[in-house]
Amino acid sequence: MGLTSRALEYAVAVTAVLCVALTVWLWPLLAGRGFLPVLGRLASIVLTQVAIVCALALGVNSAFEFYGSWDELLGRNEQAPVSVIRHDGRDVTAGVRGGLVQAAGPQGLDRVQGLPAGPPEKAGKVESVRIMGRRTRVVNPAFVYLPPQYFQRQFRRQRFPVIVAISGYPGGIMNLARYLQVPQTTGRLIAGDQMPPTVVVMIRPTIAPPRDTECVDVPGGPRAETFFAKDLPDALKSAYRVGHDPSAWGALGYSSGGTCALQLAMRNPHVYTAAAAFSADYRVRDDLTTGRLFGTGPRAAQRQREHDLFWRLAHRPVPRISVLVASSKKGEPGYHDTMRFVRAAKPPMTVDSLILPRGSHHFTTWRQEITPALRWMGSTLTFPQDVTPKPRKSGRSMH
User: Fold this and answer.
1) Which residues does residue 330 pair with via DSSP β-bridges, in sequence order?
2) What is the pTM of this model?
3) How far is CA 98 from CA 116, 130, 142, 399, in A?
4) Residue 227: CB partners within 8 Å, gap ≥ 6?
5) At what angle do helices 35-64 and 6-26 cross, to 10 degrees?
6) Which of 71, 89, 159, 184 has the most crowded Cβ, counting Cβ within 10 A?
7) Which residues, 6 or more positions from 372, have their beta carbon under 8 angstroms from its beta carbon?
8) For the residues 236-257, what does the mean pLDDT come to?
């Protein structure tokens, strides 16, 4: 059974209840003195406590998705196969069955309410996949929302704008679908002609769980920025009909996912030209969950400054991107930094803000912000004008 499966959660919960019941039932029989009764009491207490703790841990992990699989829990992070790069400009991925985007199990998608139901050409579709990093050799879980138009005949050669939605840390892709309700809100807005048909990719910010990699290329460690700025776009372009021009690409996220969205757009405007960030930080710092993100030695301080967006606005050319920042006047500790960022921005970058009178660092606040943020993203991204080549008669049609 998978770590996030309902079957495992129910089985452990039932086991915990049975352990409690058996302990109560057998306690009088273990009340005597002597080695065996004492050992029996200790064993019943230990087994009952372990069962209860396991049930609670599975419940918390299911709600917040700290770990998505047994391998992640045990520290065995899967790696993608090494790729071969031809010098004629084409890439060949060696040994990857299904390419750089592979079908995966539910990954918690079966717990989400309100997902598209019915024929995909009418309702759209959410796919559960794994993204294979060609350069970083990272395998990262993702959900991909495809709008109804993606499956309709009149759009069969059309490419679509794409939003990369990034969850916070700790947490995972299920939070984007279950609590932030990204695919449900996107589908509703598209159906109401409030945003153009858009592909949305839901993904987590860390590529080496449980470490918080903050979308940074760690010297000698995980290359999270490379994954998001190169591997992820390449994988999506190879598997889906998404735009190839940066004007069709945007990043959106909450908490550390919002920090990633800003960092990606500010540092990689040739990939992402729009970013929407809820409750983001404007500097990346080391802490207990990140470890040393910038390495050691004389260059570490400069690497850290490069991820300070206030420093970048003052010392680096300002990128031509569009940014939406969201915060709350009361309840959000980052409100003053958000307003400082708005004031520091200058052309050719444009910054809009979404400020609530009151809120907190929680989904109750972010759910109020997701609808206007998606509308903003839909009005900011360019609907691609390029189309896919006509398929050959003998070949298979594109996904």
Assistant:
1) 358
2) 0.80
3) 24, 10, 15, 12
4) 133, 135, 136, 138, 140, 207
5) 150
6) 159
7) 354
8) 96
Lookup: tokens for 359 = 């809120």
Enumerate the H helices of 90-134 as residue ranges.
120-123
Kindly give, in sequence order, each residue whose CB lies less than 8 Å from that of residue 228, ignoring residues fewer than 6 positions away: 164, 215, 251, 260, 264
Q: What is the pLDDT of residues 135-147, one digit of tens each?
A: 999 999 999 999 9
CA distance 121 to 142: 22
Other C-beta atoms within 10 Å of 43: how many? Answer: 12
- For 371, what's the count of Cα atoms within 13 Å in the CB-facing half-sphere? 10
pLDDT at residue 113 above 70?
yes
Query: In whole angstroms, what is the distance from residue 177 CA to residue 181 CA?
Result: 5
Write down the H helix ranges in the chain: 6-26, 35-64, 70-73, 120-123, 173-178, 182-191, 224-226, 232-239, 256-267, 300-306, 309-315, 335-344, 363-380
What is the pLDDT, as a whole number, of residue 260?
97
Q: What is the pLDDT of residues 281-304, one digit of tens each?
A: 999 999 999 999 999 988 999 999
Angle between helices 182-191 and 363-380 (to 10 degrees): 40
Measuring CA to CA, how many Å separate 33 from each of 39, 48, 355? Answer: 10, 21, 66
Could you tell me if 363 and 255 are in contact, meaning their C-beta atoms sit under 8 angstroms apart? Answer: no
Q: Find, among 288, 272, 277, the residue nearest to 254 by Cα.
A: 277
Residue type, 291: G
Among 284, 290, 205, CA closest to 251 = 205
Residue-wise over 190-213: b if at least 16 C-beta within 10 A, else e? beeeebbbbbbbbbbbbbbbebbb
Kindly tell me the sign of the dihedral angle through the C-alpha atoms of 244, 247, 253, 257.
Answer: positive
Beta strands in 41-183 (DSSP E): 83-85, 91-93, 101-103, 125-132, 139-146, 162-166
